[in-house]
Amino acid sequence: MKTEIIDRLSTLMSAAFGFVAALAWNEAIQSLFREFFGTAETSALKLVYAIAVTVIAVIAIVWIGKVSEKTKKFGSLKRKTLK
Prior knowledge:
Blueprint: H1 2-37, H2 43-82
């Protein structure tokens, strides 16, 4: 049970730090967007911004999932060879 609690806390803390980082990146990307396209107040520019961020997020999530799967497979292989 103790390891489950630590695992959950680790996940929650990682998510919290990820959220803070996402907010920082959001502000940075918005600044770059304003620099290149002017103010991002029009609906079309907001839509382009949202689509761009969504595409980047999906790519990152897929990549993280693949890395996680490889790590799990490597860990189970390593445990099998150590037995």
